[in-house]
Design goal:
The protein is of the alpha+beta class. Helices cover 49% and strands 17% of the residues. It starts with a strand and ends with a helix.
């Protein structure tokens, strides 16, 4: 996507067009927010496929492999899709943190909250449709949209008050560094030094937020990418392991099976069956 922001609406006719087109699992270089008023969403994300009834909110972090199929239910389909570059709204609470949790889809009730979201989407769309849209206005409306969504997430008690966890600037900075270096053979000390802190303190922060050590989080990120490569490329197991810093195929296979519960080959076969 070349634009910094884009918004469009999916209706029954658009749903039918999408269902008739080639729609393979993919990733993109922007954030995507789908707000479903009516219909259903068949969403493959976090290596699982789910069918969600409207009203719902679905958020796709950039880089995540996913496939979204908007479906007609009871003759209706009405969904907003908002796409934006990460830099467009830097303060968004949806961060790289989401890469580690299968909380992409949230089912909501048809209530006043969802009506507010729909009104905000309409306002954003109206501004976006102007000949010379004011991005500052869109940014403020999008920020308000996120505030309402985050409030609703807190009411649903998702992720044990995830919002407090997300606000850890140190943790977010660690995740940003991890995105830059996870394919390299970097240990806990490397990340701690970059963050001007001790390895012990960085481990304490990560344990508090994810109940995982820094090493476990690094391994999780590597293996998430391994799953992506197994799904989207024809590279063999040894090539994928080497690309992610595993010098031996057997060590990579062992680490993958310990985390995923199956070997890389078994995972690839499973995904092919799921998406066929």
């Amino acid at each position: 996507m070349t634009e910094i922001f884009k918004v469009f609406r999916i209706t029954e006719s658009e749903s039918e067009k999408i269902m008739q087109s080639v729609n393979e699992p993919h990733s993109h270089d922007f954030e995507e927010l789908i707000i479903g008023n009516k219909g259903q969403l068949e969403h493959f994300i976090d290596f699982n496929s789910k069918l969600i009834d409207a009203p719902f909110i679905s958020f796709v972090t950039q880089g995540k492999i996913h496939r979204a199929k908007p479906l007609i239910k009871d003759g209706e389909c009405d969904m907003w899709v908002l796409r934006f570059k990460s830099e467009f709204i830097a303060e968004t609470t949806f961060s790289l943190y989401a890469s580690f949790h299968d909380k992409a889809n949230i089912s909501l009730q048809s209530n006043q909250c969802f009506e507010k979201l729909d009104i905000l989407c309409k306002m954003i769309y109206d501004e976006y449709s102007q000949e010379a849209p004011d991005l500052a206005v869109i940014r403020q409306l999008l920020s308000a949209l996120f505030t309402i969504i985050e409030s609703e997430r807190r009411k649903l008690n998702l992720d044990n008050d995830e919002s407090k966890k997300i606000h850890s600037s140190t943790f977010k900075n660690f995740l940003r560094l991890l995105e830059e270096h996870y394919k390299e053979s970097k240990d806990v000390n490397f990340y701690a030094e970059k963050l001007f802190m001790t390895s012990r303190n960085l481990n304490l922060i990560c344990q508090n937020i994810l109940q995982q050590s820094v090493s476990e989080i690094i391994e999780t990120r590597k293996l998430t990418e391994a799953k992506n490569l197994l799904m989207t490329t024809d590279k063999n197991i040894a090539e994928i392991g080497y690309e992610l810093g595993f010098n031996e195929k057997t060590y990579f296979t062992h680490a993958f099976k310990r985390k995923a519960g199956m070997t890389p080959t078994e995972f690839r076969d499973e995904m092919q069956k799921l998406l066929s």
